[in-house]
Amino acid sequence: MSKIIIEPHYLGSLEYYALLMQFEEVCLEINDSFPKQTYRNRAHFLTANKVQTLVIPVRFENGSPTKDVQIDHSQRWLKDHWGAFYSAYGKAPFFEYFSEDFKNIWDNKISSLIELNLAFMEMVFKVLQRKPTITYTAGYEARPHNDFRNVVNPKKPFSDRKIYSPYPYPQLFGDTFVPNLSIVDLIMCEGPNAAQILMNSFYRD
After folding, report:
1. What is the pLDDT of residues 141-186, one digit of tens each?
2. Which InterPro entries does the UniProt entry name for this protein (predicted)?
C-alpha cells in the first residue's frame, strides 16, 4: 500500500489534494512542533474582488506539538469563514448539494485543530469518492519514507514544486483561471467531476 506522510491542512489546496489522491494511505503528522503561517490553519477562496485568505485563530505554546493546538473560539472566525464561503460560493452550481456538509462541520465548534482538519478531509474524500486509510503518526520521525511534510506551503509558489499542474475549470469570478485555491472552490464549481480534475492536475513529466 502506498503511503504518504504529510501535515493536515485546513480545507487543503488543489495541490494538496492532487498529491493525496496518488496514495492509498495518508499518515497525518501530528507530533511535529506547530509552525506558524502554514496551510494547517489557512485556506484561499475566490471572491468577486480577490483571492481571500481565511485563517483559523489558534492557541498554543511555543514548541507545542500540532496535536495539542486548540482553536480560539473566543474570536468570531466561524461567522467570518461561513460568510466568506457563502459570499464566494452561494451561487456556485453545487452549493446546494454540498454546502450543508461544510456548515455542519463548522457548526460543531470543534476545539482541536487536528480534529477539525480531519473532519473536513474525510468529508472531502467522500465527495471525491475516495477511501484512503487515514492514520496519525505515533511519534516524530526525522526522515520517514515518502515524507512530504511542509512541502506544500504558502511561502513559496506551487510552480516551484513539481506536484500540481493547473487544469482549468469554470470558476465563478473573472475571465482568467485562478489556480490552486482551496478544494472548496473545485467542489463547489465541479461537484462529482472534482476527482477527475484533480487527477488531471497532478504534475507529470
Report:
1. 988 999 999 999 999 999 999 999 999 999 999 999 999 999 999 9
2. WbqC (IPR014985)
CB-based contacts of 9, cutoff 8 Å, min separation 6: 16, 39, 40, 43, 117, 152
Give dist(CA 164, CA 148) in Å, integer: 14
Domain coverage including residue 62 = 3-201
Q: Determine how β-strand 3-6 pairs with β-strand 25-28.
A: parallel
Contacts for 59-66: CB closer than 8 Å, 24+ residues apart: 60/34, 63/33, 64/33, 64/34, 65/30, 65/31, 65/32, 65/33, 65/34, 65/140, 66/7, 66/8, 66/29, 66/30, 66/31, 66/32, 66/33, 66/34, 66/40, 66/113, 66/114
Output b/e per residue, 59-94; b: 16+ Cβ within 10 A. ebeeeebbbebebeeeeebeeebeebbeebbeebeb
Please count the structural domains in the chain.
1
Q: Indicate the pLDDT class of residue 198, thresholds 50, 70 and 90.
A: very high
